Amino acid sequence: MTETITPFRIDIPQADLDDLRERLRRTRWARQLPGGWDRGVPVAHLRELAEHWAESFDWRAQEARLNAFPQFTTDIDGQRVHFLHVRSPEPHALPLIVTHSWPSSVAELLDVLGPLTDPRAHGLDPALAFHVVAPSLPGFAFSAFPEPADERPWSVDRVARTWAELMRRLGHDRYGAHGNDAGALVTARLAALDPEHVTGAVITSGLGIPTGDPAELEGASQEELSWLKTLGERMAGGSGYGPYLASRPQTLAHGFADSPVAQLAYLVERFKEFDGWPERNGPVAEPIGRDLLLTTASLYWFTGTGGSSSWTYYEGAAGMPVDQRDVPTGATHGGPALLRRIAERGNDVVYWGDGESPSHMVAMAAPESVVTGVREFFQVLLRRSAPGR
């Protein structure tokens, strides 16, 4: 097995850009069905976004922004793994592996990399800084391109073991971990599998979701129980993409590979369909700039990974983060106190941000809140380990 780490730069051929624009311009548009967002992404909304993608969106500018961060690839367990490795100028910085969400990419993390790695330059206390490793999940973008994803199932366990090997290969003996959505599942499992090396695991949300055990709700107020009932109704609704991806991902993959508008529509729905707190009803105005959304859509399109990125569902990996007590745990956007009480039954919870996430892709929508939560979590750990404590 080779442990070679190879420098990498994104360089999409101009012919691929020209082909994308031509396909967008030749889109055969669907008729608008009665109703609005409740039937799916409206034609007018999607058409305006696709026209911007074809005529105004500057991929080369976004490519340069990604390439401003050091990128590498390495082969682990039969899979090429693409990752950003952004070292801090602070000599005491803690290594931190950060895992993006689904359906997203490392572009989700661009606005948090600077403040985490170089806090001094962003007006933050340089006493806490990080060397950030941000991998592309297997099957996503450049962790599957130009070769297809590995034929063997990519379970959360397998990804977590791959991340542990990546950090070992990079020489990081002690490190922290952070993740959102699919990245949260991997982060929690990484802590459970590699507690001798992981100092702490902080995720955006997902801990404390009731499992059905009546003991979890002992002492809950009527207000909390009502909130929980509404949350359950929201989580049970939506477009039903989860069961479909769990059973027939290849069918959708054909459309993703052949039509950029099909890929875009799917991503828009996932970005718009807020699946979090119960007071949200229906699609919300996503606080994410359209160029950042189109950067993600472009990465999926150019690498042909719309289908392979769905392994979190068809390998049965979708769910909630595992409980574990070996490594201190935190949540940057954990939610109400009820969820923290449930989470504490199976986790050593040392930090809980109870604010609502403004978006499923919170690092895109409110990067400062993620930076604050990650820093506050590790500050708690530093105080815990201080002499005399």
TrEMBL record:
Q: Which InterPro entries match?
A: AB_hydrolase_1, AB_hydrolase_fold, Epox_hydrolase-like, Epoxide_hydro_N, Epoxide_hydrolase
Question: Has the keyword Repeat been applied to this entry?
Answer: no
Report the residue ranges that make up the AB hydrolase-1 domain in this protein. 122-223
Which positions make up the signal peptide? none
- Which terms are listed as keywords in the entry? Aromatic hydrocarbons catabolism, Hydrolase
- Domain Epoxide hydrolase N-terminal, first and last residues per copy: 5-108
Similarity remark: Belongs to the peptidase S33 family.
Record protein name field: Epoxide hydrolase
Q: Which organism is it from?
A: Nonomuraea coxensis DSM 45129
User: What is this organism's lineage?
Assistant: Bacteria, Bacillati, Actinomycetota, Actinomycetes, Streptosporangiales
